[in-house]
Amino acid sequence: MKHLKSTLLLLAAVVVSVSLGAKPRVRIIATGGTIAGVSATSASSAYTAGQVGIQTLIDAVPQMLYLADVSGEQLVNIGSQDMNDEVWLKLAKRVNEILNVEGYDAVVITHGTDTMEETAYFLNLTVKSDKPVILAGSMRPSTAISADGPANLYNAVAAAVSPASKGMGVLCCMNNQLLDAKTVIKTHTIDCDTFEGGPSGIIGYVYNGEAHYLQTPNNRHTVNSVFDVSKLDRLPKVGIVYGYANASPLPMQAFVDAKFEGIVLAGVGDGNFYKDVFDVAVKAQDQGIQIVRSSRCPTGPICLNSEVDDAKYHFVAALDLNPQKARVLLMLALTRTHDWQEIQQYYKEY
Ligand code: ASP
Q1: Cα of 141 to ligand 1 centre, how many Å?
Q2: Which of 23, 148, 177, 206 could form an S-S bond across to 155 if both were Cys, CB 3.0 to 4.6 Å?
Q3: DSSP class of residue 144?
Q4: 70 CA → ligand 1 middle, Å
């Protein structure tokens, strides 16, 4: 009798856990941004990002509870203009723990839109799982008329539970669209339709609570990335220097004097330097500070050994990466090597 009772109890426990486990477990990590922003009035465009907490964001979208067993945690609550290396390291470690130790099926990250593309790319290179990791934000604060945050969060959770999202690397979900971490760029300062996927376009879209994919990313990411931040508590210092007519060499010289390990040029055209800046760059590279050429142009690759003889100076061409993402890759590359050819290879693969 006692034996039967415990068997029945065990059976009941299995039935309960199977039925509870029927929905995928999605963990939302909140970091702030306009999606958590608050304005003085619903019609006002003056607001402060990173004000409301994770539970308020979840409570605003009860519809997503039909899709997933959703829970959340607050990592930081900042405008993403204040995103930094320390938070990136914390975030990457936490995502890996949630997916690989705590066994969640997917992670959604709420994030400001200003630096969302950088965080997405950083995670794309440092998350060690092929489970979905999707960033969502908003362009209007949570208190605005027609706030876009709730729909973006709902769509992100819908994409996170889709089996088709597995192996896609880290994605951004904004304005019904799914964008790949490598190509996503913020293109408009205030419109909801601000994110684009560059020349290759969006990777998919979310419609009626379902994710549909149009293409797959062809660069190395997540489980195929060699970059590992699990034992790091800081990242190499890398700065960005902007190119323009008659450019001053002072910003680049300042990075050299401050002993930065790498400098990315947001050059003119195909990653070209103003001559005075070029002279400082050549000396910096000779001193072991890695120079990476990117461009202030919104589209087009940086061609290796084209107008600039990279092979002669040991510069690296950022190829398809804009300056802010070229910086992310250079920081991670410098955790492994200072060899310019190996670093160039990373730009070809990632
Ligand atoms: N400044 C805000 C942020 O990036 C803008 C936004 O989220 O849309 O946090």
Answers
A1: 9
A2: 206
A3: S
A4: 24
Which residues are marked as active site? 34
Q: Do domains 23-224 and 238-349 have the same CATH topology?
A: yes
Fold of 23-224: Rossmann fold (3.40.50)
For residue 223, report the distance from its CA to the centre of ligand 1, in Å: 29
The pocket around ligand 1, CB under 6 angstroms, is made up of 33-34, 49, 79-81, 112-114, 137, 139
d(CA 25, CA 177) in angstroms, rounded, equals 22
Each residue's pLDDT, cut to its tens digit, for the chain (350 residues) gives: 445 454 444 444 444 444 555 899 999 999 999 999 999 888 877 999 999 999 999 999 999 999 999 999 999 999 999 999 999 999 999 999 999 999 999 999 999 999 999 999 999 999 999 999 999 999 999 999 999 999 999 999 999 999 999 999 999 999 999 999 999 999 999 999 999 999 999 999 999 999 999 999 999 999 999 999 999 999 999 999 999 999 999 999 999 999 999 999 999 999 999 999 999 999 999 999 999 999 999 999 999 999 999 999 999 999 999 999 999 999 999 999 999 999 999 999 99
CB 211 within 8 A of CB 159: yes
The protein residue whose alpha carbon is closest to atom 1 in ligand 1 is 79
The enclosing H or E element of 100 equals helix 85-100
Domain ranges across the chain: 23-224, 238-349
* Host H or E run for residue 123: helix 116-126
- Residue 141, φ and ψ in degrees, nearest 5: -65, 165
Residue nearest ligand 1's atom 7 by CA? 112
> CATH assignment of 238-349?
3.40.50.40
